Amino acid sequence: MTDRTTRDRDGIETFPFPVDLSLSGVGVRVGPMGPGRAWHPDVPLERVHRIDFHVVMLFDGGPVTHMIDFAEYEATAGDLLWIRPGQVHRFSRTSEYRGTVLTMQPGFLPRATVEATGLYRYDLPPLLHPDAPQLAGLQAALAQLGREYEDTATLPIGLHTSVLRHSLTAFLLRLSHLATSSAEAARRRTDTTFSLFRDAVEKGFATNHSVSAYADALGYSRRTLVRAVRAATGETPKGFIDKRVILEAKRLLAHTSLPIGRVGAAVGFPDAANFSKFFHLHTGTTPVAFRAELR
Questions:
Q1: Which helix (H) or strand (E) holds 74?
Q2: How much is the pTM?
Q3: How far apart, in Å, do the first and last CA atoms of the chain sit?
Q4: Which of 46, 78, 122, 280 is most buried (CB neighbours < 10 A)?
Q5: 176 to each of 15, 121, 278, how far by Cα in Å?
Q6: In Å, how far are 107, 242, 260, 267 from 198, measured between CA atoms?
């Protein structure tokens, strides 16, 4: 198994699905999370690494912070994390992980099922927050899959594998529906949140440069605002505010004869020196030099 481990150019190791640790050697494993490392024996869990298989973690406790593709996700009881093949991730202290983990080898399910369950929808969110009925359905489906996985005595291996595939499909269909509906809801929230933030910045950028102040005024947490603005623009709320301030400063420098200090005051910098530092940081030039280049 370990001889299949590879190391990318960036030095990040990629680990294969541990077939030899799966009961009866099938391409799926279900077991408890915790210090016993039920998901893989050799992965350096607290270091950045890749895996070439699927991992779904259903948490019984928390909070737990888990990094996926260099973004931090905080999961707590009732949440799920879905990590897909090739994604970079890193665990927190393994003692904090409590719940059930499902790992699945690519190729275990037929293509039609793979497409129906969205196994390679990398655009879907990895962190999922099911409501009570959704969670109950997922828990029941995962428990049934766990029972089928552990029952290696009552069926021949061929039938056992077929039953596992059907049980796994039932769970993944529920999981896929949750992921898809969560993504659609998040897009709707993001559109609304960003639109409100954009309008608020347009009205207040001359006096308000505080992300927290905008978040409080709009009734959102700072984290929600960060997610919405990043999804809509690819940048942080602070970066969005700063760009609007710089744009207005450039307009005033180019199209008015206001002294530099008055320009700074007009965009929220009563101190001319602070305005010049801010302008230079974001443009690489001073307000005086910028104006001179245009005249």
A1: strand 71-75
A2: 0.65
A3: 69
A4: 78
A5: 24, 9, 46
A6: 45, 12, 27, 16
